[in-house]
Specification:
Blueprint: H1 2-15, H2 22-25, E1 38-47, E2 59-63, E3 69-77, E4 83-92, E5 97-100, E6 112-120, E7 125-133, E8 140-145, E9 151-163, E10 166-174, E11 180-190, E12 193-203, E13 208-211, E14 222-242, E15 251-256, E16 265-273, E17 281-288, E18 297-302, E19 305-311, E20 321-325, E21 337-344, E22 348-355, E23 360-364, E24 372-380, E25 392-397, E26 401-408, E27 414-421, E28 427-430, E29 442-451, E30 454-462, E31 469-473, E32 475-476, E33 498-501, H3 505-513, E34 523-533, E35 536-546, H4 548-551, H5 554-565, E36 570-575, E37 578-583, E38 590-596, E39 599-605, H6 608-621
Antiparallel strand pairs: 1-6, 2-5, 2-7, 3-4, 3-6, 7-8, 9-10, 9-14, 10-13, 10-14, 11-12, 11-14, 14-15, 16-21, 17-20, 17-22, 18-19, 18-21, 22-23, 24-29, 24-32, 25-28, 25-30, 26-27, 26-29, 30-31, 33-34, 34-35, 35-39, 36-37, 37-38, 38-39
Helix pairs in contact: 1-5
Length: about 625
């Protein structure tokens, strides 16, 4: 198996060496630029859409890097893609957040709908968007997180069409450089059988496509799940509504499409059974996001114990879903209360849908718990005693202590640090109203660091009235050495003395096509850029993100480098402990290949000494 896979990858890389011609395009006259800024995409931002009480979407951006950064926030019209407004934010400090409220922006027209692009100059950023409409008992609130990278396969555990009043619409955004051909495979439950329908969309780069099940005549009514595949990286935001005209208590929530990481364990910090005195209960939607049938095992955890375990009778087929409704589990088995959840048995996309009679929230499980989490928007009675308060729920995936740092929005000042003990699998809730040192009517950004292991987190946002309830997942801090990081763009670190330049998009597209047989198998994604040093070309850097099965396969890694090391003109070197193989005669066309973390990296150039110096710098930056 490993030998065949190594030969396949070796063959296509060898066939694609023509990309080295891109080096000739990188001349001293070429336009050199600094490393590309971090970009976050917000597909749907509105101002009074539908009237004064219509949809409005405040959004929050947090600096999750180690250095101050400047932001450029660009608003593009849904109607024609034109730039409507742009603003600049300077000196956003590490860990702190910036908030924009479109309803307060005089440069945006009322009734407008926009896609927003947020660019950061010097540090990675994350963003959360809150969607609101209506007032009083007709108020609705949803939340989704900004998109910074895409995938070729995305899973939606719950897609509804008139499912007891529930409807799921979703937006697919193309984050690639070429038109995306997206195939949406929807499997709908009809009694004991499943009806499968495939929907096609062609999406231009940077644009979005909208899917409304009501407009898909072949899609039957009921609950189902969707698997979306594309030939360009995509990201998906789903909106789940139960708010048709005449509904006495309209409810809605949003969730982001799930990308499988290869992990067979999923953590959900919060699930409820008849909690809060409001019969708040959770339905867990579990979809097989892997490539093989998988059986589900669900553990409810509390007080350092497994309260109960639920196992599926039959394995789920790839793309299929099932659910567990905690509100209907007998009290003799699971007492009323709040729990942490651990799901094992396969690569599952999991949605926790928590409802009361008047509210609904949704968030997705964490397949990649981390040692550090970022929470861009945390509030304590913001807007008054009945205003927004945002409890945090943290779950241990091995960590024994969680340390929270609270930064005030208004000036970025560190207000409070606190440490909490954790028990593996269990969850702890932090209500800002009970934290000493925090002020009422105040907005914070929070950074959480774990000791002894990793954690997962979710933030709930509550205010009085109607469906004023939302949830968003904590953002994990991932590095390229973290086995859950699979974005090749993250490898292109800013280096002193070096700049990156954009390569020809058609050449990169053609290069990508040479690997069509390997996407979703050995390879997840690629990115390529030219490298300059002081106006002189170093080479063309190509970074592949390997799939989890191969990035963690020691035999595959060894065999791949050994295959190149056995070539006639090969020279195997060590650079900062990293094995690097150069192939090519000195002074002639040369490429270097190495593996670091989840990345397979190639550098095409001519001068091996110049290339070696750059490799030392980029390897060090990614350690």
């Amino acid at each position: 198996m490993e030998g065949h896979s190594t030969k396949s990858l070796l063959r296509v890389i060898s066939l694609a060496l023509a990309l080295s011609l891109a080096v000739a395009l990188i001349t001293p006259a070429a336009h050199a630029q600094a490393a590309s800024p971090t970009t976050v995409y917000l597909p749907n931002v509105t101002k009074m859409l539908g009237g004064p009480d219509g949809w409005q979407t405040p959004f929050i951006v947090q600096n999750v890097g180690a250095a101050p950064t400047d932001l450029t926030v660009s608003f593009y019209s849904f109607a024609d893609g034109s730039l409507v407004a742009q603003r600049h934010v300077t000196g956003l400090m590490p860990g702190t957040s910036y908030a924009d409220v479109p309803n307060n922006d005089a440069d945006l027209p009322a009734g407008g709908q926009f896609s927003v692009v947020v660019q950061s100059s010097a540090a990675p950023i994350v963003s959360v968007v809150n969607e609101h409409q209506g007032t009083g008992n007709r108020a609705e609130a949803l939340s989704y997180v900004g998109l910074s990278s895409g995938a070729l396969k995305v899973s939606l555990p719950y897609v509804a069409k008139n499912d007891n009043g529930w409807l799921t619409t979703f937006v697919i955004q193309n984050l690639g450089t070429a038109p995306a051909n997206a195939k949406i495979a929807v499997a709908t439950d009809i009694g004991d059988t499943t009806a499968s329908v495939t929907i096609d969309r062609v999406i231009q780069p940077g644009r979005s496509a909208f899917v409304d099940p009501r407009s898909e005549q072949l899609l039957p009514a009921g609950s189902g799940a969707a698997t979306i595949t594309a030939d360009q990286p995509i990201a998906v935001v789903a909106n789940v509504h139960n708010d048709a005209a005449g509904t006495p208590f309209p409810r809605a929530y949003s969730y982001n499409g799930v990308v499988a990481t290869g992990s067979s364990t999923t953590y959900l910090p919060y699930a409820a059974k008849n909690a809060d005195g409001q019969f708040r209960s959770t339905k867990l939607w579990v979809q097989n996001a892997g490539a093989a049938p998988a059986g589900i095992q669900i553990e409810l955890r509390k007080g350092g114990k497994v309260v109960d375990t639920f196992s599926s009778t039959n394995p789920l087929r790839p793309g299929q879903h099932n659910f567990l409704d905690l509100g209907k589990v007998p009290t003799s088995s699971v007492p009323d209360g709040e729990y942490g959840v651990v799901i094992t048995g396969g690569q599952f996309a999991v949605l926790a849908q928590t409802t009361t009679q008047t509210t609904a929230t949704g968030y997705t499980g964490a397949m990649a718990p981390a040692t550090k989490l970022y929470l861009p928007n945390v509030t304590r009675t913001l807007g008054g005693p009945a205003g927004w308060t945002t409890p945090i729920v943290l779950q241990s995936a091995g960590a024994t202590i969680a340390t929270l740092r609270w930064y005030r929005f208004s000036d970025g000042g560190l207000v409070k640090s606190q440490s909490l003990p954790l028990v593996t699998g269990d969850s702890v809730k932090i209500d800002p109203r009970t934290v000493d040192g925090l002020a009422d009517g105040t907005q914070y950004s929070v950074v959480v660091e774990a000791t002894g292991g990793t954690i997962a987190g979710v933030v709930f946002e509550y205010a009085d009235g109607g469906d004023n309830a939302m949830a968003y997942e904590a953002f994990p801090a991932l590095t390229t050495d973290d086995p859950k990081a699979y974005d090749p763009k993250q490898y292109f670190k800013s280096l002193n003395g070096y700049t990156y330049v954009t390569l020809d998009a058609d050449a990169i597209r053609a290069y990508r096509d040479d690997f069509n047989d390997l996407w979703g198998k050995q390879l997840v994604d690629l990115d390529a850029r030219g490298v300059m040093q002081g106006g002189n070309p170093v080479g063309a850097l190509v970074v592949f993100a390997l799939s989890p099965d191969y990035s963690h396969n020691a035999s595959f890694r060894q065999d791949l480098l050994a295959s190149y090391g056995a070539m006639k003109t090969a020279k195997t070197t060590t650079n900062l402990g990293q094995t690097v193989v150069f192939v090519g005669a000195p002074g002639g066309p040369t490429f270097a290949i190495w593996l670091q973390g989840n990345y397979l990296v190639l550098l095409f150039g001519r001068d091996q000494q110049t290339m070696g110096a750059f490799i030392a710098a980029i390897v060090a930056a990614n350690q």
